[in-house]
Design a protein that fits this description.
There is one protein chain. This protein is elongated. The strands form two sheets. Strands 3-1-4-5 form a four-stranded parallel β-sheet, with helices on one face. The chain contains 16 helices and six strands. α3 crosses α10, α4 packs across α8 and α4 runs antiparallel to α9. The chain is of the alpha/beta class.
């Protein structure tokens, strides 16, 4: 532990840059904790404050800039791919859409502090057509706030943090086991959440072909598009006749859902494993819908099958 702290002091700028860049790329690196410890070490005067801040801001801009370009170049498809490999694919797209829609450019600031969304905000900003100068301005401001906050926490609690570091240096193996136990708890929590997620994705689905046949029948189903406003802006296509209700709107008890009474309902989104559509289906079933089914593959599957679409 003493050697590790010595390494951090000697290479603080490089460590801060590497940790911040990795975190912005979506890797599970505790960049905030690194900044807090660095803030405590700054009190000793052996580390350049300007160098640390510049390294963190540059790392944020490079990492977020890569995702911004990818979103600008490849659009919504890239964000869905990104969410599939994230730690929270069940809420990644939906929370990103909500954040961008509610906060605009300031979402780049808020996303720094929202787990599972920090990597989604930059590509979504690119997909929604945010200008490069505006993105750079907001991202630099967000990086300064994020860096300053955690460095400030470390500086403010430097005495307590240095005491903790001293105890960890003396504890040696005990400290390592404690960190291992914390990691194990983290993994168990993630596993439990994943089990709940898989139960949700395991509910019955309806295929594009089945939906097409039902729409041509005597009792066509009610089709609902549960994508957020940002998702509809990026891809304005929809299944002809579909109504637009976000998952949040469907969850509101005051919403009039009389149109779904006594009818089959098919819901679709453009999210990993149709999770938003599955959650909306559960809401409708709980409120008395006869049958509510997510569309397998969502809007992409409908478009890929060659079926017609209509603009929102």
């Amino acid at each position: 532990m003493a050697q590790l702290m010595s390494l951090l002091v000697q290479n603080a700028i490089l460590v801060v840059f590497a940790a911040s860049f990795a975190a912005r790329l979506g890797l599970p690196v505790p960049a905030a904790a690194v900044l807090v410890v660095t803030g405590a070490l700054l009190a000793a005067g052996d580390i350049s404050l300007a160098g640390v801040v510049l390294a963190a801001v540059a790392a944020n801009l490079l990492g977020d800039g890569a995702w911004f370009y990818a979103g600008r170049r490849f659009g919504y498809r890239f964000m869905r791919l990104l969410c599939r490999i994230s730690l929270a694919p069940d809420s990644c797209v939906r929370r990103g859409e909500s954040l961008i829609g509610d906060w605009g450019g300031l979402s780049l600031v808020a996303a720094k502090f929202v787990p599972g969304v920090s990597v989604v905000a930059p590509p979504m900003a690119g997909a929604l057509g945010m200008s490069v100068p505006r993105f750079i301005g907001f991202d630099i401001g967000a990086a300064l706030i994020w860096t300053g906050l955690f460095l400030g926490l470390g500086w403010g609690f430097r005495n307590q943090i240095q005491d903790v570091l001293a105890v960890m240096a003396q504890a040696g193996g005990i400290a390592t086991m404690a960190l291992g136990a914390l990691l194990l708890v983290f993994l168990v929590v993630r596993w439990l959440r994943r089990r709940a997620f898989m139960r949700l994705t395991g509910m019955p689905r309806i295929s594009v072909d089945e939906l097409h046949e039902m729409l041509a029948g005597d009792e066509p189903p009610l089709v609902i598009d549960v994508r957020g406003a940002a998702g509809q802006q990026v891809d304005p296509r929809r299944i002809p006749g579909a109504l637009s209700y976000t998952l949040k709107a469907l969850q509101q008890r005051g919403l009039d859902l009389s149109a779904a009474a006594g009818r089959d309902v098919v819901l679709y989104c453009n999210c990993p494993n149709e999770v938003s559509a599955a959650q909306a289906a559960r809401v409708l079933l709980a409120r008395g819908a006869r049958r509510a089914l997510p569309l397998t593959g969502g809007l992409d599957a409908w478009v890929a099958s060659g079926r017609p679409t209509s603009p929102h």
